[in-house]
Amino acid sequence: MAGDGAWGPRSTAACAAWLRAHGLDGDGGLDGRTLAALQGLWA
Q1: pTM
Q2: How far is CA 3 from each of CA 7, 11, 23, rounded to the nearest angstrom?
Q3: How high is the pLDDT of residue 2?
Q4: Please, which residues have CB within 8 angstroms of residue 2's CB and are 6 or more apart in sequence?
Q5: Which of 7, 24, 28, 37 could join 16 via S-S bond, C-beta 3.0 to 4.6 A?
Q6: CA–CA separation, 28 vs 43, rounded Å?
Q7: What pLDDT, on the 0 to 100 scale, is given for residue 17?
Q8: Phi (first) and psi of residue 26, to 5 degrees
Q9: CB–CB of 12/28 below 8 Å?
Q10: What are 1-43's pLDDT values in tens digits?
Q11: Cα–Cα distance, 2 to 32 (Å, whole number)
Q12: Helices in 1-43 by DSSP H: which ranges?
């Protein structure tokens, strides 16, 4: 699936699912806590 660079409902749902899978709560938005958790994957 090609990305269009837009953040929409499917992006929000995917982010929320990722947060839940990693034991975090969140609304699916890219806030500082979410970005820090993502950066930890590549540290």
Answers
A1: 0.69
A2: 10, 10, 26
A3: 58
A4: none
A5: 28
A6: 22
A7: 92
A8: 170, 165
A9: yes
A10: 457 888 889 889 998 998 899 888 878 888 888 888 888 877 6
A11: 26
A12: 9-21, 32-41
Residues in the chain: 43
Residue carrying the six token digits 């970005």: 35
Residue whose token pair is 């699936």:
1
The Cα–Cα gap between 12 and 9 comes to 5
Q: What local confidence, expressed as pLDDT, does residue 43 receive? A: 63
CB-facing half-sphere around the CA of 38: CA atoms within 13 A: 12
End-to-end CA distance of the chain: 27
